[in-house]
Specification:
Blueprint (H helix, E strand, L loop, with lengths): L23 H18 L3 E2 L5 E3 H5 L6 H4 L4 E3 L5 E4 L4 H11 L5 E10 L11 E10 L4 H18 L4 E7 L6 H13 L7 H9 L1 H4 L8 H5 L10 H16 L5 E2 L10 E10 L8 E8 L2 H4 L7 E7 H11 L11 E5 L5 H11 L4 E3 L6 H11 L3 E5 L1 H5 L2 E6 L12 E4 L3 H10 L1
Parallel strand pairs: 1-5, 7-8, 12-13, 12-14
Antiparallel strand pairs: 2-4, 3-4, 5-6, 6-11, 7-9, 9-10, 10-11, 14-15, 15-16
Bound molecules: adenosine monophosphate (AMP).
């Protein structure tokens, strides 16, 4: 026996997760398609990687990052393996590269959901979508420039204006110890001015203190030493080259000498796209940079990588703030109005769909009046009507619908049924 309705549990999507219904879902797909198009024009091929991996793939991202220490969704599977849902894509892309060894430089783009157990709030979800691109196997700083330019073209194509590119370098691994010492000395001399959380971060990785968005830390961070004073000649030259490249391509950027990124693996170029129309806590619409060592740590060669990930939801919020890239208005081309007892409604819809025309119709044996109302509401430019008269004469009626421009759709015509597809296509082409 089925349970009574009072005993049934009512489920809701979990905190930090959402259902995207049409047309929001189509807007997201359009954004991903736009990104895919730009990436493929630039010679990137798509990678579809698993949504979960061995936990170790992600712990390699860094012991001092929140993403790893607090936010991973991890569990044990039936085989006793420690598994985690991906919190981002870079580690999976590096793992795939180490495993598959494609020709270098390997250029891969991706799109899909990532998972982090964060405190859910506006623009911060537990399942969120990213699009991104990575290049593995080359040190050439022109690739850094090309990646930034790809993201920039993508934003431009969406129509976004209020996004600022913040650019920095983190130097080479060998530049780091002296800089870390200087940071440690700076923060330790002013420990009282740091939040408790930042003091803990300082113990693990002083660089990550710079990433604190907590207001009380801001003043001390603004006074911290900058990496550019500690760069090797090579790292300095590479950073110069990236800036020259961006200038040559007329991609505007702002130098942000205290910008660091989430991963412990970042070296040299780092960047972030900030949505200037968004609240500070959620204004990072995307970011990326160079990383060394991650591929090797995942069992591959000592090959460097560079890439970025853009948050789809945040990008759409930035679009909202700019009033661009509206949700599409999906309508079908033809609405079938069938008031016969037979299968005409089914058949006409199928015939048109097989001919490549988008079609919908009403169900549940509605009256002519109700169906015409539905046709109007649908926004379809054309109705195909079949009633008993049309059926008897083996015909259908075509009625152009009232359009948004006020053009009235009164001139209904009766045509032989076997001409329907041709005539419908002619009318739609006008
Ligand atoms: P990250 O790897 O943290 O730099 O994330 C890259 C981008 O993904 C960010 O700039 C955001 O746009 C987006 N993002 C990260 N975490 C979340 C989240 N919890 N909810 C929504 N978007 C996120």
């Amino acid at each position: 026996m089925s349970s009574t309705s009072s005993a049934r549990q009512k489920f809701q999507a979990l905190p930090g997760t959402r259902d995207l219904l049409s047309p929001t879902s189509e807007r997201m797909r359009a954004l991903v398609n736009t990104f895919a198009d730009e990436a493929e024009r630039a010679g990137f091929g798509q990678i579809v990687s698993p949504m979960f991996e061995d936990l170790g793939v992600f712990t390699r991202l860094g012991e001092s990052t929140d993403v790893v220490t607090k936010e991973l969704y991890d569990f044990e599977d039936n085989g006793g393996r420690r598994i985690a849902l991906r919190p981002e894509f870079t580690a999976s892309v590096c793992r795939a590269y180490a495993q598959e060894r494609p020709l270098t430089p390997w250029k891969a783009w991706y799109a899909g959901p990532a998972f982090r157990q964060e405190k859910a709030q506006k623009g911060r979800y537990r399942q969120f979508d990213q699009v991104g691109a990575e290049v593995i196997g080359s040190h050439d700083p022109d690739l850094d420039t090309e990646l930034v330019a790809l993201a920039d073209r993508f934003y431009r194509r969406l129509g976004l204006r209020s996004v600022t590119l913040l650019l920095n370098t983190l130097g080479d691994a060998a530049d780091r110890p002296r800089y870390l010492d200087a940071l440690r000395a700076h923060f330790n001399a002013n420990l009282d001015a740091l939040t408790e959380q930042s003091r803990i971060t300082l113990e693990k990785n002083p660089l990550r203190v710079l990433d604190s968005k907590r207001p009380p830390d801001a003043e001390l961070i603004a006074a911290a030493p900058v990496i550019t004073d500690f760069l090797s000649v090579e790292a300095g030259a590479a950073f110069e080259r990236v800036q020259q490249g961006l200038t040559a391509l007329e991609v505007p950027f702002t130098l942000a000498p205290r910008l660091v990124r989430g991963l412990d693996y970042y070296t040299r170029t780092t960047f972030e796209f900030a949505g200037t129309g968004l609240e500070a806590a959620q204004n990072a619409v995307g970011g990326g940079g160079r990383y060394d060592g991650l591929v090797a740590d995942l069992g591959g060669p000592e090959d460097p990588g560079v890439g970025f990930a853009l948050g789809v939801d945040r990008t759409l919020m930035a679009c909202d703030a700019d009033g661009v890239f509206d949700a599409p208005n999906p309508t079908v081309d033809v609405w079938i109005v069938a008031v016969t007892d037979g299968t005409e409604g089914l058949e006409l819809a199928e015939e048109l769909r097989r001919a490549g025309v988008s079609v919908d119709r009403a169900f549940d044996g509605r009256s002519m009046k109700a169906q015409m109302k539905a046709a109007n509401r649908s926004g379809a430019p054309l109705a195909v009507i079949v009633g008993e008269d049309e059926l008897a004469a083996d015909s259908v009626s075509l009625r152009p619908m009232r359009r948004a421009d006020g053009h009235s759709g009164s001139e209904q015509t009766v045509i032989p049924r076997d001409q329907m597809v041709t005539r419908v296509k002619e009318l739609l082409a006008r």
